Amino acid sequence: MSLYSHPGAGWSIRHWRRDDYPQIEVIFRECLAAFPWRGSARDEVLRLRQALSANIAFVAEEKSAGVVGFLTLEQGKAYVPHVFVDGDWRFCGVGSGLLQVARNFVGRPLKLDVDIQNAAAIEAYTALGWREQAKVGRGSREQVRLVGP
Ligand SMILES: CC(C)(COP(=O)(O)OP(=O)(O)OC[C@H]1O[C@@H](n2cnc3c(N)ncnc32)[C@H](O)[C@@H]1OP(=O)(O)O)[C@@H](O)C(=O)NCCC(=O)NCCS
């Protein structure tokens, strides 16, 4: 069942299914390649699998491209461990659509942690009205805790 459909761009958002996993992992690995400060992709992929099996997740899907973005959600904490959009589909509203669906799902403002090196994502969240709540983590994993509108 579609939870949100973009009126012009042809993608929609729904709950994830197990058969989405190969495309989710491809998007995730491609995004991680742009984060040289992160540790091994293997550990990150393990954490992604754990997040998918323990939590709620949504995918954005377009008919011919398939999965173009995904988000994992710890419902009880209103916390978003992952929001990742395929590089070819950025600036199309996919990220904000996924965050809006998750926000509607939990019914209160969301939180997430973003690496301080990830300036592009911080700009995107700022554009969407998120604000800094605290600094978290240490060393190469220093992050900013953001809270959404
Ligand atoms: C961060 C990310 C999820 C944003 O997704 P997206 O689909 O491109 O975002 P949207 O198209 O919904 O854009 C939302 C807003 O952010 C702005 N924005 C998006 N990317 C931006 C960037 N790199 N720089 C500045 N602003 C940006 C958009 O212009 C838009 O603002 P507007 O509402 O004023 O027009 C995406 O860039 C991504 O997947 N990055 C790699 C993975 C990552 O860093 N994930 C976050 C980990 S915490």
Structural topology:
Layout: E1 4-5, E2 11-15, H1 21-32, H2 41-54, E3 56-62, E4 66-74, E5 79-85, H3 94-106, E6 111-115, H4 119-127, E7 131-136, E8 143-147
Antiparallel strand pairs: 1-2, 2-3, 3-4, 4-5, 6-8, 7-8
Bound molecules: coenzyme A.
Coenzyme A binds near residues 114, 123 and 127.
Structure summarized in a few sentences:
The chain has 149 residues and is of the alpha+beta class. Helix content is 32%, strand content 31%.
Q: How is this structure best described in words?
A:
The protein starts with a strand and ends with a strand. The strands form 2 sheets. Strands 1-2-3-4-5 form a 5-stranded antiparallel sheet, sandwiched between helices. Strands 6-8-7 form a 3-stranded antiparallel sheet, with helices on one face. The chain contains 4 helices and 8 strands; from the N terminus they run ββααβββαβαββ. It has a single domain, classed as Aminopeptidase (3-Layer(aba) Sandwich). The protein has 149 residues and is of the alpha+beta class. The protein is globular, with a radius of gyration of 14 Å. Coenzyme A is lined by residues 31, 83-85, 90-96, 112, 114, 118, 120-121, 123-124, 127-128.
